[in-house]
Amino acid sequence: MPWAIAAPNTPPPPTWGIFTPGTVGQFFFVIVYSAVIYWLISRAKAGMPVPEIRKIAGLDAFDEAVGRATEMGRPVHFTPGFYAFSSHTLAAFSILAHVASLCARYDTRLIVTTLNATNHPVLEEIVRQAYLEVGKPDSFNREDVRYLSGYQFAYTAGVVGIFHREKVAANFMMGWFLGEALVIAEAGALAGAIQIAGCPAVVQLPYLVASCDYALIGDELYAASAYLSKDPVMVGTLIAVDWFKMFITGLIVIGVVFANLGSKAFMNFITK
After folding, report:
1. What is the per-residue pLDDT for 264?
2. Membrane-crossing residues (predicted)?
């Protein structure tokens, strides 16, 4: 039965003799993208002009939240989210440095909690450095940088307990959050805290927007960290990402137009 014998699976020939079919466009995109990032970071490090990062409305509330806690004589709480050492966690670290600097300047107690043991020493050093830069190293209390638990809802319960015992007046939630997001935010609301959240997790954003006073939506978390830290690497990378988002959006629009006009040449070119 010849029809039952499988035909040999012959791989398609390489594009231009060296590229796996379907990867040519990806290869050149990565090369150009990397070159643009390097160029923007180099300009930012050299102090040369680069596009400015728009100030996000939620950033104005940072001073308001810490100032309110200072006036009430109550502490500020900060959490960097669920995961350890990812892009959103690194963004949260930059924001924490700013918040810790404000708290040190106003002599406001800052409580930082985490559920990742690997985050704990980094968080402690960030807060310590902020107090040192303000000139108040003796005001730093390492006991206020707390690793509560490695279990999601055990950590959540610990944060809720801190809110009720310490009467937290401001709550910063910056990073990636899962099911604990709404529980923590609701506990903060019951404690009467002003709350600012920043989260790139689409599934949690509706809950944070509804339960917090201010929210940094999606990529605004990364924009806020670059805006506050002024770090050349973060600034250059953020600008490059925005440029390529606009570029890809333009390709999509052009592709839709050509596809509807019945031309396949453009589509074949960008998908090589």
Report:
1. 62
2. 18-41, 175-198, 243-262
